[in-house]
Design brief:
With 441 residues, the chain is of the alpha/beta class. The protein is built from ten helices and 15 strands. 38% of the residues lie in helices and 24% in strands. Helix 1 packs antiparallel against helix 2.
């Protein structure tokens, strides 16, 4: 039926010669005001939960970083038997699962580190189709359509023998480019696909649509805080069992799930929410029991599309190297594990416990230090302030930041320098050594 409306009613008596002779009723439709109030309250609640979760997740990342690095070191030991190697493999696998859960929490909290660049959503969705087909059973039909000059054009249909409709995404239908992280946006698509699969145990259809829109006063209240220019909408709609009305307002809450015990953590949609919000967008859900669910993602259109869109790259490969590295890390276990890895790969390592300590070590060994590997968040002096202090006298200083939090505006500006890079915790040996090798080239 029609959506419910909320009205404010003010009744004023009309008095004539001291007696009430009637009433004046003022009825005001406050539906949109109430929607905005509810939306702001939900955002405040999610932000508070996210802030708490992010602090816990950051500490877990430090713990997991130590576990991952030491396990990888032990796996290199030649004197371990097959049973020990297998057990270490299980430990590493479980640590990776834990890291993925922590990443979901950080994504929801909008505290994950993302690499921003132009991303063409048409190419991203089509490139995700192969993975979707591995996740979705054959009884689910998957279609992808994009708004072109003459309306919606179907690009891909898993029940067709080949791609159908317009195939020139860069020409006939234009490019739908946003400023973002291709890997994180791909994670959004995968989470929504898995959610749709679970909602259609007997099969059904999953429709993905891309369209452009211009801001106007008629758009939903949830979009009022987006920039007043063009944006892109990505909708993911299934024909599944739907979501109960009492559950719909909570679908993006962390750890909220209607699935059976052991079937879900309740973080998938929370992660979607956080990633989309961190990209300056918004996500809403519409659903009716027995009639399916539609997730509606809104992302700001990148107006400066002169740069080439980001592509998803292959996994990096480690390379050994030589040189002296100043390691700055306030967590003793993380510092010791990182030092052991660096020495294993042939690097000479100096240690410091924070930025102030690092300044003392650096000034005593200036000519001998090839790179500074530093945590960002530390007591007394953090990594960003340390770099800014050292760079005044050494503008060509090479620095690799380790962080579990997103970089602020200053940090993002530093990343544009050719001698600076960053690693997100927890990182693998391969990622660490590859970043160092690239900086020392």
């Amino acid at each position: 039926g029609e959506p419910s409306r909320v009205y404010d009613v003010l009744a004023n008596p009309v008095e004539i010669e001291g007696e009430t002779d009637g009433w004046v009723l003022v009825i005001r439709d406050i539906t949109r005001d109430r929607e905005l109030q509810d939306q702001l309250q939900r955002q405040d609640r999610l932000a508070a939960v996210g802030q708490l979760a992010a602090g816990i997740a950051h500490d877990f990342n430090n713990i997991l970083a130590v576990i991952v690095l030491y396990v990888q070191m032990l796996q290199r030991s030649a004197n371990l038997g097959a049973v020990e190697q297998k057990r270490l493999g299980v430990v590493r696998e479980q640590a990776q699962h834990a890291s993925a859960l922590v990443r979901q929490v950080l994504d929801f909290s909008r505290m994950s580190v993302i690499e921003r660049g132009p991303v063409d959503l048409v190419g991203l969705v089509r490139g995700t189709f192969d993975m979707w087909q591995r996740v979705l059973p054959e009884n689910i039909r998957l279609t992808f359509a994009v708004e072109g000059p003459s309306g919606m054009c179907t690009l891909t249909d898993t029940h067709a023998e080949s791609d159908v409709g317009v195939t020139d995404a860069g020409g006939a239908i234009g490019r739908f480019i946003v400023e973002g992280d291709a890997t994180r946006l791909q994670q959004v698509l995968m989470n929504l696909a898995v959610n749709a699969r679970d909602a259609m145990p007997d099969g059904g259809s999953l429709h993905i649509r891309l369209a452009r829109h211009t801001a106007n006063a008629e758009h939903p209240v949830e979009l009022q805080d987006l920039p007043p220019d063009r944006w892109i909408t990505l909708s993911v709609e299934d024909t599944g069992m739907g979501i109960a009305p009492e559950h719909l307002p909570h679908v993006f809450d962390p750890f909220f799930t209607t699935k059976a015990v052991g079937k879900g953590t309740g973080l998938g949609l929370a992660q979607v929410y956080g990633i989309v919000r961190q990209h300056g967008g918004h996500v809403t859900a519409d659903s009716r029991l027995g009639a399916g669910t539609r997730f509606h993602l809104t992302l700001p259109l990148l107006l400066d599309a002169s740069r080439e869109p980001e592509q998803l790259g292959d996994d990096i490969v480690a390379n050994e190297g030589t040189g002296r590295i100043l390691l700055v890390e306030d967590n003793p276990a993380a510092r010791e594990a990182t030092r052991a890895i660096l020495e294993l790969y042939g690097y000479d390592v100096l240690e410091a416990t924070n930025g102030t300590d690092a300044l003392r070590v650096f000034r005593a060994q200036t000519d001998a230090i090839n790179l500074v590997l530093t945590d960002v968040m530390m007591p007394e002096m953090g990594g960003i302030e340390l770099f800014q202090t050292l760079a005044e006298a050494h503008p060509n200083l090479r620095v690799l930041f380790m962080t579990g939090y997103p970089l602020d505006d200053v940090g993002r500006q530093l990343m544009e320098l050719g001698t600076v890079d960053w690693l997100q915790k927890p990182f693998s040996i391969q990622q660490l050594t590859e970043k160092i090798r690239n900086l020392l080239q």
